[in-house]
Structures are given as C-alpha cells and as structure tokens.
TrEMBL record:
<dbReference type="InterPro" id="IPR006311">
    <property type="entry name" value="TAT_signal"/>
</dbReference>
<comment type="similarity">
    <text>Belongs to the bacterial solute-binding protein 1 family.</text>
</comment>
<feature type="region of interest" description="Disordered">
    <location>
        <begin position="419"/>
        <end position="442"/>
    </location>
</feature>
<dbReference type="GO" id="GO:0042597">
    <property type="term" value="C:periplasmic space"/>
</dbReference>
<dbReference type="InterPro" id="IPR050490">
    <property type="entry name" value="Bact_solute-bd_prot1"/>
</dbReference>
<dbReference type="Pfam" id="PF13416">
    <property type="entry name" value="SBP_bac_8"/>
</dbReference>
<feature type="signal peptide">
    <location>
        <begin position="1"/>
        <end position="35"/>
    </location>
</feature>
<feature type="compositionally biased region" description="Basic and acidic residues">
    <location>
        <begin position="424"/>
        <end position="442"/>
    </location>
</feature>
<dbReference type="InterPro" id="IPR006059">
    <property type="entry name" value="SBP"/>
</dbReference>
<protein>
    <submittedName>
        <fullName>Extracellular solute-binding protein</fullName>
    </submittedName>
</protein>
<keyword id="KW-0732">Signal</keyword>
<keyword id="KW-0813">Transport</keyword>
Length: 442
C-alpha cells in the first residue's frame, strides 16, 4: 500500500470514528465546539471577479449564484461570476497568472495550482480554520492544494465523481444481475452489450473530466506514470497489459469515442445510443429533471457503480478535482478570502451541495452527512469521491510536472493510441514515456 493510500485509510478511519462520536441528525451540522469563527474584513470599495467552470448541472450554478447574492447583500462587495468550459478555464487562468491581470478568484481543475504556485495568494490561515471547524480536509484535497505540506495554494472545492453510469435493464438483458466488480467481467459485459445492440462507450478525446477513466485503466493493472521518486515509469509491462485490455474494451465501444469531449457521452447516453459510460451524476440529474417525458422515464433505469477492480486487487479511483485559487495580483485579498470562507461555511456550502444534486462531492469530512447523500440511494456512490481519490500524479509528488503532464493529456492520449490501433501498446507507452520525461526532469 502506498504512503498516500495508507494515510488516506488511517485518516478515513479516524473520520468515521469522529463522525460517529458526534451523533446523528442535525447535530452533525453544528460547528465543532472548539472552533473559533474567523472573518476577513473586505477592503473599502472591494469588487471581485470569479472565473469558474461552466455547469453540467443547473442546480449547481443556481445555488452558487444564490450564495454570491447573499454574500454581496451581507458585505456590500460586488461579485462578478464568469462561467467557462473546463477546457477554457485552464488557458485563461494561465494567461491571468502570467500577465498579472484578470479574475481575482479562479475555480479550476486538478492540480493546476502547481503550474504557477508563486502567482497565488497564500490561504493557509483560511484553510486551517476550515479544516479544524469541519472535521479536516481529505488527504487528496490537501495533496492538491498543499503539495509542500506547508503553504496552502488554494482551497479544495470538491470533486465530480467519475463513476460508472448504466442502464439497469440493458445490463440485465446482457446477462448480468449486478454490475461487474472486476475488470474481466467488465470486458465480458461490454462484449455482451455490443452483441445485444446496446453498446457502451467512454471518452478518448481530450476530455478534462471524462478521460480520467484512463487513469483507472492504467492503475488497475499496476501501471503508473511515475514512481515515488518522480521517475517516469509509464513504459512498463503493467502498462502494456492495461493497453492490451484497452484495445479489447475499445473494440466494443460505440464508434466516435476517440473525439469525445466531456459533453459527448452525456448526449449519447440520454439519446439512448449507449447503455454504459463513465460520468458524474449529471446524466442522472438531467434525466430526472428533463421536460421530455421519455428521458425523465429513463431516470428510473439509471444507476451508478464504482469502477471495477483490476489485477492490482485494490480500488483505483480517479475523479475530477476542483480547486479555488486566489490570484496574488488581486487588489482585494481580504475580500477574496472572506468570499471563499463564506462559500465554504455550512450555511452556504451544504445548500450548494444539495442544489448540485450530488454533482460535486465535498472536500471536508463534515459534509459526508449532508442530506444529499441520503435523499436518494443512487447519489450515495458519489459521496466519497474526494475521500477515495487518487491524484493524477500518483505515485509521485504533485507539482509543476504532474500538473503539466495532466494538462497535456499524456495518459488519455496513450490509451487512445493503443486502443484504436494507431500505435501498438508498446509504441504508445514509449511515446508517453518520452512526453512525460519532458515534464519530469530529475
């Protein structure tokens, strides 16, 4: 077991024990007795601009904007929120960091903060306050936002769980009473679904969120981009086995997945073109809330499952992590920190979790008890997405190299090349090795 997974297990056990000792019901949402409230006094005339990824779930942005309005009413600080696609936030954030001008606060993905750590405001005081008050941050969130173990480069916002989304009726028609729990049966299911004319499919394009299944694929077979010393080891026998598996799996995909970005599988699933994919809870949310009776009826047939376990023998979950960064160039650092504090407090954060319908899983242990996870049993699999998250830079240390390699889609591109047959598994692994070594210069 890696140091990261061992620590995650121990802290997870401690978190469960702590939650059990608190009690049940609404008492779980009272701040810890020893926590001292912290506030930051906004600068006179402060105005904030927030850049964040655009919605896949309408309730997310509705609840977020309701909290923004509430913040402005309480503080007098005007807040402008710009919504952009995931693929657009990253380059815009990089431009802002390099030019020293742009949004005051940026909500981005994965370990983007490590691309320009010296351009970000230190929010250690705020992070430690929230951690003490709400049961602690999950190790994955801390790894992303505090890679040196000291200074916090930003605050974790949560993660959109990348789980299996499937049609129960079609999986049963393919001969499976329950969703497969291992990679051998997972492949058998995909083959059976194709034979039934109800194929599945997962994104193999440069999809920020949905291509994370490629991390699962490599890790499940024992492969990894780097070792504990940040030495690139992706060209390995374990990776080759994973890519050979990917080729078999891809042969049963619906055509077109090589160009799929994040919206494509949502549309294909809701159009009835595919029966199994990987996604956040947004497909289920869209079906439940669709004005189209046929799509709304589909919701009863949709269910969720964690990814199957591969030859490595342990869960290897990869999810899309969300961060919150305050740019160092902001003229209103106090206002920015107060905004983030306000948005993470239970009076705002829990309604936002519920508004999003489970689309984002919490980064603080305290919110495991949010009503969103018990209101619908189909939501529950997404609850522990941050708790079980293995960072994309596994098994090494996060930093500029891990962030750059993830932003360059090295793993998804390797899987796509091998799966489609444009390169042999060995050729794809060798190319990924060379690309990654450009970032990991020891």
């Amino acid at each position: 077991m890696s140091d990261f997974n061992r620590r995650k297990f121990l802290e997870g056990s401690a978190g469960v024990a702590a939650a059990a000792s608190v009690g049940a019901g609404s008492a779980l949402f009272a701040p810890f007795a020893h926590a001292q409230n912290m506030t930051f006094k906004p600068e006179k005339g402060a105005k904030l601009r927030v850049l964040r990824w655009s919605r896949f779930v309408q309730g997310d942005i509705d609840a977020y904007m309701a909290n923004v309005k509430k913040f402005t009413e309480l503080t007098g600080v005007e807040v402008r929120v710009d919504n952009e696609g995931w693929e657009d936030v990253r380059p815009k954030a990089a431009v802002a960091a390099n030019t020293g001008a742009g949004p005051d606060i940026i909500l981005s993905t994965n370990d983007d903060a490590n691309l320009y750590p010296d351009k970000l405001l230190d929010v250690t005081d705020l992070a430690e306050y929230l951690g003490k008050k709400y049961g602690g941050w999950y190790p994955a969130g801390e790894a992303f936002m505090r890679p040196d173990g000291k200074k916090w480069l930003g605050l974790p916002l949560g993660a959109s769980g990348t789980l299996i989304v499937y049609r129960e009726s079609m999986v049963k028609a393919a001969g499976f009473a329950t969703f497969p729990k291992n990679t051998d049966d997972f492949l058998k299911l995909y083959k059976a679904l194709k034979e039934k004319g109800t194929p599945g499919g997962m994104a193999l394009g440069n999809a920020t969120g949905d291509s994370t299944w490629c991390n699962w694929l490599i890790w499940s077979h024992g492969g990894k981009l780097v070792d504990k010393n940040n030495k690139v080891v992706i060209d390995s026998p374990e990776t080759i086995k994973a890519l050979e598996y990917a080729k078999e799996l891809y042969a049963n995909f619906i055509p077109g997945t090589l160009s799929w970005l994040d919206p494509n599988n949502n549309k294909a699933f809701l159009d009835g073109q595919i029966s199994v994919t990987n996604n956040g809870i947004s497909i289920y949310y869209a079906a439940k809330n669709s004005p189209d009776p046929k799509i709304k009826e589909m919701a009863a047939d949709i269910n969720h499952a964690v990814f199957p376990i591969g030859p490595v023998g342990v869960p290897t979950e990869s999810h899309l992590f969300f961060n919150q960064m305050v740019m160092k160039y902001t003229k209103f650092p106090q206002a920015a920190k107060e905004f983030l504090r306000f948005m993470m407090e239970k009076e705002q954060f829990d309604p936002w979790l519920q508004g999003g319908g489970g689309y984002v899983a919490q980064p603080l242990r305290y919110y495991e008890n949010s009503a969103i996870w018990s209101s619908d049993p189909k939501n529950l699999p997404y609850r522990d997405s941050v708790k079980n998250l293995r960072p994309g830079g596994y098994d090494g240390k996060l930093g500029y190299a891990s962030a750059g390699a993830a932003a360059d889609f090295i793993i998804p591109n390797m899987v796509a090349e091998a799966a489609s047959g444009s390169k042999t598994p060995k050729e794809a692994a060798e190319r990924a090795q060379k690309r990654a070594e450009r970032y990991y210069k020891l």
